[in-house]
């Protein structure tokens, strides 16, 4: 099976470090790597839609990530100050607080996404150079707006108490936030596959990606669909931003820029436009980072780039990419 | 004389700096096949793309059932009941045959699902390869798919641009049979270089040359006018 090949490669790579470490350490690193991978997938999933499917080089994706984190941060702060939901020992109230924060992040980024697509992206479809310039410009504006609204310094994220700390499962340390991130990542993955392959909207979007002109001629307003996809991608960036902030327990105005590069690497490794590719790519990046950071700490930062180069050398269209 | 469905008057369209259409005038009558003929580069495809809204004419009028549609967005024109089969079919290669047909439905209702089922009976190849990627079909099958796709919606006008281009003679025969089976259901404006095909299908012709309408009449008149054919079609 040709389609199974990437999965086999990933599994082989994931088992390789077992040669150089104890099984218990390996398990801990694997759980941490999967969690990191899922956090990256949350960011990359949105970029898969915008860059992979719609072919827009959106550098503002990182700024939307930050905006999502700050919107969720404000919601949590407010709920905690007024009602004490984050400090409450009740798991229910904690979960509710996180859900409200997630909703706030998604809503703010969705609206920002609509505005960005209408105002600056729509005139530059198909023109990569202009996309880079104008979305970089938007990034600067959005980041400065964060500094104006929330101040220039890092702030502590009020993480609900039930989600702090870790579980100890058979001597393997399992952090709680990553478990939530993994569940959320899987839910997003399933939701995206359903949306793209089982709904009419998904069908029209996939057709529009191949030929926007033809979809218009068939009676669909492609601009409206693309605005929706862009806004959805932005909302996913915000989801990733908020989970990242909860994981790090802090927010900072420039936090999105650091993650953007990971997201681009993941989308390219996975293959443009492939949601499954992004998931596998994100997990590969998360796992290899954690293994290498343990075995060869100095090489940890370079390993993602090396991974991308390796994948592209073997498969120029990425793991799951269709040649276009 | 039956009712006029489409009326194009003094159409001027530019592509970039090039003044492609310099006064195209034509009409299409209800439930008849009108063929638009002319040499390569005469402006046939530009005329079709101007009607459906992919190109915005600089001057002139396009009326569909009395309503002005020049400069209207393509999806709005399509929603009025105008189907378009572009040159080179315009099918979605990465989607399955079935998905290609379903994406064309303006709404997912019983009427359109019935029509889709009828298209699969009319084109058995499409039914057989229903779940295959449309990109793997042969050229003829792709053309059948493009036509079936246009018929999934009840159309009041169908624009078909050079359906026989690049097809093997046997496939052209199939295509003619298929178009004959559906032509009584709708008004058709056809661009066709294959004179034999135009002769069999069309009721009425318009000739354009260098972006201008230079002749019109019943198809039988063009068939018997050797001078006109030689002058504008080179045959």
Which descriptors would you attach to this protein?
heterodimer; A: 324 residues; mainly alpha; ABC transporter involved in vitamin B12 uptake, BtuC; two-stranded antiparallel sheet; 4% strand; globular; B: 235 residues; alpha/beta; Rossmann fold; four-stranded antiparallel beta sheet; 38% helix
Which secondary structure elements does this structure contain, and how are they paired or packed?
The complex is a heterodimer of chains A (324) and B (235).
Chain A: H1 5-15, H2 23-53, H3 61-83, H4 91-121, H5 128-150, E1 155-156, E2 166-169, E3 172-175, H6 176-198, H7 200-210, H8 212-217, H9 222-248, E4 250-251, H10 255-270, H11 275-295, H12 303-314
Chain B: E1 4-15, E2 18-29, E3 33-37, H1 44-52, E4 59-64, E5 67-68, H2 74-79, E6 82-85, H3 97-104, H4 110-122, H5 124-128, H6 139-151, E7 157-161, H7 169-182, E8 187-191, H8 195-201, E9 204-209, E10 212-218, H9 219-224, H10 226-233
Parallel strand pairs in B: 3-8, 3-9, 6-7, 7-8
Antiparallel strand pairs in B: 1-2, 1-4, 4-5, 9-10
Helix pairs in contact in B: 3-6, 6-7
Strand order of the largest sheet of chain A: 1-4
Oligomer: heterodimer
Please give the largest β-sheet of chain B.
Answer: 6 strands, mixed
What is the CATH architecture annotation of the domain at 4-89 and 156-233 in chain B? 3-Layer(aba) Sandwich
Shape of chain A: globular
């Amino acid at each position: 099976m040709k389609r199974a090949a990437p999965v086999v490669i990933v599994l082989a790579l994931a088992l390789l470090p077992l040669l150089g470490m104890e099984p218990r350490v390996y398990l801990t690193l694997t759980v941490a790597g999967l969690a990191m991978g899922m956090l990256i997938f949350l960011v990359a999933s949105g970029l898969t839609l915008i860059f992979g499917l719609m072919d827009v080089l959106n550098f503002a994706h990182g700024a939307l990530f930050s905006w999502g984190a700050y919107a969720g941060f404000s919601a949590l702060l407010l709920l905690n100050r007024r009602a004490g939901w984050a400090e409450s020992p009740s798991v229910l109230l904690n979960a509710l607080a996180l859900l409200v924060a997630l909703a706030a992040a998604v809503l703010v980024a969705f609206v920002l996404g609509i505005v960005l697509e209408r105002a600056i992206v729509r005139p530059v479809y198909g023109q990569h150079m202009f996309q880079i310039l104008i979305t970089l410009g938007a990034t600067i504006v959005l980041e400065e707006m964060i500094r104006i609204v929330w101040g220039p310094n890092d702030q502590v994220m009020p993480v609900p108490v039930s989600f702090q700390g870790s579980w100890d499962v058979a001597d393997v340390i399992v952090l709680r936030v990553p478990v939530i991130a993994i569940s959320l990542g899987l839910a997003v993955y399933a939701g995206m596959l359903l949306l793209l392959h089982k709904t009419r909207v998904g069908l029209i979007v996939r057709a529009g990606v191949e030929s926007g002109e033809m979809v218009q001629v068939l009676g669909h307003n492609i601009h409206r669909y693309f605005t929706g996809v862009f806004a959805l991608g932005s909302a996913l960036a915000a989801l990733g931003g908020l989970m990242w902030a909860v994981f790090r327990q802090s927010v900072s105005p420039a936090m999105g820029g650091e993650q953007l590069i990971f997201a681009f690497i993941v989308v390219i490794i996975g293959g443009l436009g492939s949601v499954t590719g992004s998931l596998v790519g994100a997990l590969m990046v998360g796992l290899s980072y954690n293994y290498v950071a343990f075995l060869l700490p100095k090489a940890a930062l370079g390993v993602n780039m090396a991974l991308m180069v390796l994948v592209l050398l073997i498969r120029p269209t990425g793991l799951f990419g269709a040649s276009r | 004389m039956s009712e006029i469905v489409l009326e194009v008057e003094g159409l001027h369209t530019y592509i970039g700096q090039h003044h492609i259409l310099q006064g195209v005038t034509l009409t299409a009558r209800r439930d008849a096949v009108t063929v638009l003929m002319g040499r390569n580069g005469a402006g046939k495809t530009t005329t079709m793309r101007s009607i459906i809204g992919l190109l915005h004419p600089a001057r002139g009028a396009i009326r569909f059932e009395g309503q002005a549609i020049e400069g209207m967005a393509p999806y709005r024109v399509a929603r009025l009941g105008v189907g378009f089969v572009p040159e080179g079919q315009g099918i979605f290669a990465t989607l399955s045959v079935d998905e290609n047909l379903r994406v064309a439905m303006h709404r997912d209702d019983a009427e359109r699902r019935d029509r889709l089922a009828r298209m699969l009976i009319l084109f058995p190849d499409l039914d057989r390869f229903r779940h295959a990627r449309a990109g793997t079909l042969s050229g003829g099958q792709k053309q059948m798919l493009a036509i079936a796709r246009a018929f999934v919606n009840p159309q009041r006008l169908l624009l078909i641009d050079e359906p026989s281009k690049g097809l093997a003679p046997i496939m052209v025969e199939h295509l003619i049979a298929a178009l004959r089976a559906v032509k009584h259901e709708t008004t058709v404006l056809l661009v066709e270089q294959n004179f034999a095909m135009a002769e069999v299908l069309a009721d009425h012709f318009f000739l354009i040359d260098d972006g201008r309408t230079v002749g019109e009449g019943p198809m039988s008149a063009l068939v018997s006018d050797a001078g006109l054919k030689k002058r504008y079609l080179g045959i």
